[in-house]
Amino acid sequence: MPQFITAIDQGTTSTRGMLFDRRGNPVSVAQLEHEQIYPQPGWVEHDPLEIWENTQRVIRQALDGAGVSGGEIAAVGITNQRETTLAWNRTTGRPYGNAIVWQDTRTKQICDRLAGEGGVDRFRQKTGLPIATYFSGPKLNWMLENLDGLRSAAESGEAVFGTVDTWLIWWLTGGPDGGALVTDVTNASRTMLMDISLRTWDGEMLDVLEIPEGMLPRIVPSGDPSTWGTTRRDGPFGAEIPVCGALGDQQAALVGQACTRVGEAKNTYGTGCFMLLNTGKELVESRHGLITTVAYQFGDELPVYALEGSIAIAGALIQWLRDNLGIIESAPQSEQLARSVQDSGGMYIVPAFSGLFAPYWRSDARGVMVGLTRYINKGHIARASLEATAYQTRDVLEAMVSDSGVDLEILKVDGGMVHNELLMQFQADILDAPVVRPQVSETTSLGAAYAAGLAAGFWQDLAELRDYWQEDQRWSPTMESSRREDLYSGWKKAVKRTFNWE
Length: 502
Known about the structure:
Elements: E1 4-10, E2 14-20, E3 26-33, E4 45-46, H1 48-66, E5 73-80, E6 86-89, E7 99-100, H2 108-116, H3 124-127, H4 136-146, H5 150-156, E8 159-162, H6 164-172, E9 182-184, H7 185-188, E10 194-195, E11 200-201, H8 203-208, E12 218-220, E13 243-248, H9 249-256, E14 265-269, E15 273-280, E16 291-296, E17 304-311, H10 315-325, H11 333-338, E18 348-350, E19 368-370, H12 378-404, E20 411-414, H13 421-431, E21 435-438, H14 443-456, H15 462-468, E22 471-475, H16 481-496
Parallel strand pairs: 1-5, 5-13, 9-12, 14-20, 20-21
Antiparallel strand pairs: 1-2, 2-3, 4-7, 6-8, 10-11, 14-15, 15-17, 16-17, 18-19, 21-22
Helix pairs in contact: 9-14, 10-12, 12-13
């Protein structure tokens, strides 16, 4: 009897393959980074073929690392960077160009045109989303207008579109040889093409963005007992395994954190930073700059919705200190350098490298350092970089409280940055709420495993999964309220300095 679930976590900077046992414990992990391509300012791309190649390699490495054969895997789940947009030929599998990454801002003129005819909330009631460069629909419109041969191929049925979940599921289940062209409902909800209430592609949105419906994948549940296909014997698993689970990365983290009750929230600290609040089967329309999104849907059950606050730059700011400024050699050194000073010295960094996402939605914003004096050194810069993530999280939390009317009791956290204890303590201080890290911090991969495992009958229900969640460490607020509000007031002033740059 199969004893493991495989999760493929295809993220913005790397691809990870993980195996989990019946209690949701990680058994093996393999990870490979892929190239970040910057053709010009504001443009961010990935090579889809490199991502597929890395996916196959991490699967093999994860199996080898555990000494497990494909026949011991019960099901495959996928989680992925959302909004990143691909188009490829269904006969050859060749992409028509690089994938346009969620951070990319080249569609600003398209979005400005759309918003000019009805404001940024023109389609919010239908899609749950503001008009922004973040989402897939405008990116696909740009590709259809600018990539040679794509529009004619799309109109003839040769070209197909997908987010990364679609790309990987298609290849895993056969690619040009009968691969399943599907996208799960959470990823579809990030395209700006889906009616979030009906969970179907919306004709008006397709017309507005001039997208042929025939190139779109079929929308399916996040965990689907009917499965979408099986892996091939000549593929990386060497066996036929059901592919039946998929969740966008932040929804996967919500499931992996067992935030399956109304009012429970998690925050993931990765390249960007993403907070989700479970609102249950109620679709809550945000009035304070958040996104209404599908949290998950398992089988024939009604979907569960969430409010989300998306922050474009979190861990990416630490990468910038390393790769662009060279003041640290590795990300963990940021904490050591930040601890060399008592505070940020009155300076703030607002990393609006790709504009500002929630709750501001300002594509005209650009990054700033403010409050600089001769006193400032690289320790202050490192500390201000960490604090920027905590301040942005508070911006989102305040919007969530305003929309939902629910005060946060604790914040469950995950992602690479949660091992930075200085950041986690400052986060608790600036939120005035406990911050809790789980024992299994790779909750994104775990959520994908849960989606597939529930669909395959490997696990019974969500109640069983809640029993597996265990607290690892908790940070409680210690900062005086007057100090907290002074610091946050300075942050809000710094944010205003980023506006109207572009």
